[in-house]
Amino acid sequence: MFRTALALIAFSLCLPALAEELRVPLPGHDDLVIELPAPWRAQVRRPHAELPPSVAISGLDAKALQMLITPIWPVGSAPRAPTAEELRALVQAGATRAQPKAVERDLPLQELGAPGKTGYYFSATDRAPEPDGYKHLTQGVLGMNELRVTFTVLVNGAPQEPTAQALELLRSMRRAPAAKTP
């Protein structure tokens, strides 16, 4: 009996935390698929059917972790993938805007390092967060074919683990054919 219980415990420790698959429909494009770690929650906000949605994600404690993801597709007849230089310039502009309020003297850009995707981000610590604000910010953009996926990760408390989880969520995002509606 003891060996069976021990084997079941060992087996359960080997299983990854259950994740929920969130499919975000993008009109005229493949769906964006996001694997949410348990117990994270998400809400898709779509102010208008033709506009890009925003996905608001929170950890178990929303005051400890908030994440916002917005997939933006090109407008026009010839959609093309954004270049690494374009993505880098967008993130650099965000870092330049964040720097005056940051504790850090420099906000170097980091490469997201996701197979088949190009992305950059920076992290900053707010020198004087608002009373209900967040102390730590990670912000960037990820290129997924023709999509530009902007993201912001806000953390209170120790930022390393939740930020690493959020970046892994971004690396694992994928596209899938749009779900058929009856």
Produce a short descriptive summary.
The protein is of the alpha+beta class and 182 residues long. The chain has helices at 2-14, 84-98, 160-172, and strands at residues 19-26, 29-37, 41-45, 54-58, 65-72, 110-111, 118-125, 136-144, 147-155, 174-176.
Key attributes of the depicted protein:
182 residues; alpha+beta; seven-stranded antiparallel β-sheet; three-stranded antiparallel β-sheet; 23% helix; 36% strand; disordered N terminus
Main beta-sheet annotation: 7 strands, antiparallel
Which class of secondary structure composition applies to the elements? alpha+beta
Q: Between the first and last Cα atoms, what is the distance in angstroms?
A: 51 Å
Unreliable stretches covering 5 or more consecutive residues: 1-17
Number of E strands? 10
Give the radius of gyration: 18 Å
Query: How much of the polypeptide forms β-strand, as a percent range?
Result: 35-45%
Whole-number mean pLDDT = 86
Number of discrete helical segments? 3
- Helix-strand topology string: HEEEEEHEEEEHE
Strand order of the largest sheet: 3-4-5-9-8-7-6
Shape: globular
- Give the helix proportion (percent range): 10-25%
Report on this structure:
By secondary structure, the protein is α+β, with helices and mostly antiparallel strands. Helices cover 23% and strands 36% of the residues. It has a 7-stranded antiparallel sheet, with helices on both faces. Strands 1-2-10 form a 3-stranded antiparallel sheet, covered by helices on one side. β6 and β7 form a beta hairpin. It is globular, with a radius of gyration of 18 Å. The model is unreliable at 1-17 (pLDDT under 50).
